Amino acid sequence: MKKYIFILLAATLGLTSCSPFNVRSDYAETANFNTYKTYKLRIDDLKLNDIDKDRVLNELSRQLQSKGLTSGENPDLIINVKANHKKVTDINTTSPYGMWGWGGPFGWGVGMNRTWSSNYNEGALIVDLIDARTNKLVWQGIGSGISVDSPRAKQRQIPEIMAEIMAKYPPQRK
């Protein structure tokens, strides 16, 4: 009985901890992340409207400060933030089983197959951490899966995805 409860609990936890975002990161093996204490945001490549730009930058600053970094004019890290989006087409098909007649799904009856497509825009955020002294990329976090077409979804998703991206910084050495 305990075994079944444990399996049910593990399955429930696994389903509730799934994220709608695809988040990944990479880092330079030679970088010493303990030496970085200050940062400066560079937003030259951040092509967003002012509302979304504020959401991204405010959440990024909050995440960096929660990791002990402070903003400064002579920074250890230059943070470059980029955003992009792509058009996605989903194609869905229903199974050919409709109303069943005599003999269940393999007997005679009426069956219908329906295919439809939906188009939407999916956004991504890219955070580059560049060593200000060497001007080399030392860490990069990428998160995709933002619903660009819905303002309410963006309002909720931008802080969530930024938190998930920055959860991977500093990297855990293997």
Can you count the beta strands?
8
Beta percentage is 35-45%
Mind telling me which CATH architecture this is?
Answer: 2-Layer Sandwich
What is the element string, with H for helices and E for strands?
HEEHEEEEEEH
CATH level-1 class: Alpha Beta
What is the number of helices? 3
Helical/strand content category = alpha/beta
- Report the end-to-end length measured between terminal Cα atoms: 38 Å
Kindly identify the CATH topology: Double Stranded RNA Binding Domain
Instruction: Tell me, rounded to a whole number, the average pLDDT.
Output: 82
What is the overall silhouette?
elongated
Rg (CA only):
23 Å
Largest sheet: 6 strands, mixed
The amount of helix comes to 25-40%
How many structural domains?
A: 1
Poorly predicted ranges (pLDDT <50, ≥5 residues)?
4-16
Biggest β-sheet: strands ordered side by side in the sheet: 1-8-7-4-2-3
Could you explain the architecture of this structure?
The chain has one domain: 2-Layer Sandwich (Double Stranded RNA Binding Domain). It is elongated, with a radius of gyration of 23 Å. The chain is 28% helix and 39% strand. By secondary structure, the chain is α/β, with parallel strands linked by helices. The longest helix has 17 residues, at 50-66. The strands form two sheets. Strands 1-8-7-4-2-3 form a six-stranded mixed β-sheet, covered by helices on one side. The chain has a two-stranded antiparallel ribbon with strand order 5-6. A hairpin with a 2-residue loop joins strand 5 and strand 6 (104-109). The model is unreliable at 4-16 (pLDDT under 50).
